[in-house]
Amino acid sequence: MIPTKQYLLTLILLISMSVFYLQAHAQISVKTIAYWDLNESYDFYGSYQRYQVTNGDTIYSNDVTYDITVKVIDSTATSYDVLWKYSNFDIKTGDALIQAKYADIDSVSLVIRTDELGTYESLIEWQELTAMYQSIQALQNQNDEGLTLGEEIKSSIISSNEIDTSFLESNAMHDIIAYLNFHGAQYDLGERYEGIEELRNNLGGDPFKTEFQVWLSDIDSEEYNYIMRSYSAVDTTTLTDATYEYLKGLAALSEDDFPEREDFPAVSNETYISNRIHSSGWVTYSIYTREVQAQDIITIEEYIIGMK
């Protein structure tokens, strides 16, 4: 739970009208800013699920729970360094890639840097995270009989990419990026903020154009928190083209027949993020959901973080 000192800080902030405040015309706004202390630490529960929905049937391929400790290990006038430690992994259901990823691992730690507002800036310690993905790459050098087609494709994509900070930020840190998704900006209740950003293309080629919306959903002034939400969608045409060319290349290697482009189904990729944020800047609950759809098959990935 948020300690007493944070409630006192919140009271001061409310009086000075710097977090929840009224503008002209009674516009209600919030600023998502990190008011974190050096060595401040909180424990969270976390989970990752991946499943497919086809004609109303749901099949889980991955279901993993774990504990997370988040600690501010350095603080300056312009930045925070924050340790994220994952431990106590419980693989309820896991495909071959998940089994390889968590094999013989008791815990995984990484350190990120944010600016003074809590906006994500960079990954500064990532060696343990890299090792997890190198274990997946190793599957390509082993006898991959028994891997499903989906596992083979995912393993192939990971193996074709260098496991650098750019890859890790785009593929291995969805929960952390979502946790900090709204920091560093002011939001007006009832307003929707729209924009275009670029998403890394793991299949090779140019990044995907992605349209997004962000909005302040609700304010609970009695509990000193509020709910932020966002939605983003990758451009369907470029995503489908890239997916088609990549799978066509794999089919050529195995001399399998492959459909013409006009017969290939459209692929969509949509992401939803919802965070409950305390006025101290600590996120008490975060959920990241990505839905990838082709014809009547929807593949869903979901990360949840909740403060204990």
Description:
By secondary structure, the protein is an alpha+beta fold. The chain has a single domain (4-307), classed as Lipovitellin-phosvitin complex, beta-sheet shell regions (Roll), CATH 2.30.230. 24% of the residues lie in helices and 45% in strands. The chain has seven helices and 14 strands. It has helices at residues 4-16, 96-102, 127-137, 149-159, 165-171, 174-179, 236-253, and strands spanning 21-22, 28-31, 41-54, 57-75, 79-93, 107-115, 120-125, 186-188, 192-199, 208-220, 225-234, 267-278, 283-294, 297-307. The strands form two sheets. Strands 7-6-5-4-3-14-13-12-11-10-9 form an eleven-stranded antiparallel beta sheet. Strands 1-2-8 form a three-stranded antiparallel beta sheet, with no helix packed on it. The termini are close together. Residues 1-25 have low confidence and may be disordered.
